[in-house]
Every structure is written in C-alpha cells, then in structure tokens.
C-alpha cells in the first residue's frame, strides 16, 4: 500500500485531475465575459460581374471592413477568427452563405481594425440569381480559447444590393 | 486508476455528445495557429443545420483519416434542406476541393461527423506518439501488465 508504485500512481492521478479541473475553470471564466463588439462594412466598388459558361454568376467586390472586437478577448483567449460572409436567398436555395474574407486576430491590440480589400474568396452563385440581389453582410467571429469551449457569434448588416446588370 | 477513469470518461463523452468519436487529435498544421498538431478537439453533432464558420470534422470517401477544417461556403436547398458545403483550413491558401474525392465539389451532411466545440492543447501527443512509434505502446502496455501482476493485493 505504501510502495513506490502505488504512490506514483496516486500522485499522477491527482495531478491529472487537478490539471483537468484548472482547464475547466479557465474555460468557465469565459462565460462571465459580456462582449460589446461593433462592425461596419462598405462596398466601395463592384470590380466586375459576369456569368460563367457553366451558368453560374460571379462577382468581384472591393470592401472596406472596420470593426472593434476588443471586448471579446479574455485572459483565456488564444485568438479570434473573424470572417465576413455574404448571405442571400435564391429560388433554389433557402440560404447561401459565401465567405468573402477572413482573418485571424492574435491579440487584443489588433482587434480594432480597418481593412480595405477585394474579396479573398470567390463570390460564385449556384446558378444565375445575383442580378439585383439583396443580400446581408454578416461579420462572424469565433473565439478560440487557450483551453476549453469555443464561442461564436455574429453581427448581421443588411441593406446591400448587387447591381442589376453584368459589367 | 488513470486507465479506468480515462475509459469511463471516454464512454461518458460518447453518450453525452452523441457521436461515435467524440474526441479527435489534430494531426496537421492546417488550422494553425488556432489548433496545433497534438491538440485534441471535443466534438458534438446536433441536428442543427451546418452554417459558415463552424469547424467541422469530415471524412472524404475513400480516406480513413478525418479532416478538421472550417466551413466557408454553404448552399442549403429550399425543398429538401440538404446542403452543399465547402471547407478550408485556416492556415491553407486554397479551399479543400483538392482534398475531396475526384470530381467532388461539395461536401454533404453525411460526410460530416461532428462540430468542434472545445479543445485541450498538447494532450493528443500521447496518441500521436503511440501511433507513430508503436513500440512505445507496447512498452506502456507491458509496464501496466507488470504493475498488475506484481501488485500485492
């Protein structure tokens, strides 16, 4: 009962249990954070708008994205993954979500940002439904912790519309 | 003590998360710096629809090893509610179409095993070492066996 083997085993079990408990508590502390993020997106320019040979519409935009996500960071936050998705409805699809841009915010200092960019990923429809289409731009973020539960949320910005004609 | 409690926790997790494989080990660096090789991810699969931004674990037809990447595009059908999904690793330049089966452009729901909801760093290294250097697995099992045999009661 007092052999080295038993003592080593007991010690290891207690150590692992306490470590697991600490990770769980670290994660729980994230629940007390009530964030107040803000964001704004402007479509500066429609670069081009075409229909492909296979019948799918594609559009290229230049965007100005500004946001303040500093309140999302806690001591248990490793990074915040942020992305901007265009969301719209078509006759065939009840929901289309197309990610236009994403970025990684490694620290609180970088969480208040302003970026001028064309869409990083191609905005292609399944079909030819984009002319004159109303769409929302939603800024999503995913808080990735140092350990524990991940949180995700978003801000929906509506009122955007694509041009009526190809150009 | 550790082995039995680990087994109990594993089985409990399987019941709670409702998935066959509730924990996966991150094997590649395609989701860095968020997930590094050796981290473990807790999975959960619910009937909720798949949405952009979620980190999903999926199997490509014909490949054994599941891949953990983020959903960047979703197209959900009006009538059936079925989805076409495109994924990409945060740290990869391009999307996952190169990883999908020949001619496959989208993932469907049945490819997806679960969503990552939480994670623990470094713990997965034990599994990686045991898979890549099986001799260590044998040494561990041998040592455990020895412990059981030589214990006094």
TrEMBL record, chain A:
Question: Is Endoplasmic reticulum a UniProt keyword of this protein?
Answer: yes
* GO CC annotations, alphabetized: signal peptidase complex
Q: What is its main location?
A: endoplasmic reticulum
Key words, A-Z: Endoplasmic reticulum, Membrane, Signal-anchor, Transmembrane, Transmembrane helix
Highest taxon of source: Eukaryota
Bilayer disposition of the protein:
Single-pass type II membrane protein
Q: Where in the cell is it found?
A: Endoplasmic reticulum membrane
One GO BP annotation here? signal peptide processing
Q: Name one Pfam family in it.
A: SPC22
* Keyword ATP-binding listed: no
| Family per record | Belongs to the SPCS3 family.
What function does this protein fulfil?
Answer: Essential component of the signal peptidase complex (SPC) which catalyzes the cleavage of N-terminal signal sequences from nascent proteins as they are translocated into the lumen of the endoplasmic reticulum. Essential for the SPC catalytic activity, possibly by stabilizing and positioning the active center of the complex close to the lumenal surface.
What is this protein identified as?
Signal peptidase complex subunit 3
TrEMBL record, chain B:
EC numbers on record: 3.4.21.89
Membrane topology summary? Single-pass type II membrane protein
Protein origin, superkingdom: Eukaryota
Entry's Gene Ontology BP terms: signal peptide processing
Keywords tagged on the record: Hydrolase, Membrane, Protease, Signal, Signal-anchor, Transmembrane, Transmembrane helix
Q: GO molecular function, one example?
A: signal peptidase activity
State what protein this is by name: Signal peptidase complex catalytic subunit SEC11
This protein's species is Punica granatum
Q: What is the lineage of its organism?
A: Eukaryota, Viridiplantae, Streptophyta, Embryophyta, Tracheophyta
């Amino acid at each position: 009962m007092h052999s080295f083997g038993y003592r080593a085993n007991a010690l290891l079990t207690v150590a692992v249990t306490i470590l697991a408990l600490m990770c769980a508590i670290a994660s729980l502390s994230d629940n007390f954070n009530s964030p107040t993020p803000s964001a704004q997106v402007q479509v500066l320019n429609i670069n081009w708008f075409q229909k492909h040979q296979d019948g799918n519409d594609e559009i290229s935009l230049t965007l100005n994205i500004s946001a303040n996500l500093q309140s999302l960071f806690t001591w248990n936050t490793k990074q915040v993954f942020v992305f901007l998705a265009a969301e719209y409805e078509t006759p065939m699809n009840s929901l289309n979500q197309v990610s236009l841009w994403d970025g990684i915010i490694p620290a609180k200092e970088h969480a208040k940002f302003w970026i001028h960019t064309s869409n990083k990923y191609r905005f292609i429809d399944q079909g030819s439904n984009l002319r004159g289409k109303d769409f929302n731009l939603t800024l999503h973020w995913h808080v990735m912790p140092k350990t524990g539960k991940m949180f995700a949320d978003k801000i929906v910005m509506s009122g955007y519309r694509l041009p009526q004609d190809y150009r | 003590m550790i082995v039995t409690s680990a087994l109990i926790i594993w089985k409990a997790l399987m019941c709670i998360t409702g998935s066959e494989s509730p924990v996966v080990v991150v094997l590649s660096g395609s989701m860095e710096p968020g997930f590094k090789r050796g981290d473990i991810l807790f999975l959960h699969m619910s009937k909720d629809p798949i949405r952009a931004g979620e980190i999903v674990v999926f199997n490509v037809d014909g490949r054994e090893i599941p891949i953990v990447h983020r959903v960047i595009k979703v197209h959900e059908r009006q009538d059936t509610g079925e989805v076409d999904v495109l994924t990409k690793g945060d740290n990869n330049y391009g999307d996952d179409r190169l990883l999908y089966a020949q001619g496959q452009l989208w993932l469907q729901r049945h490819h997806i095993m679960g969503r990552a909801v939480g994670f623990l760093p470094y713990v997965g290294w034990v599994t990686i070492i045991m898979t890549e250097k099986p001799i260590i697995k044998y040494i561990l099992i041998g040592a455990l066996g020895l412990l059981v045999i030589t214990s006094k009661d």
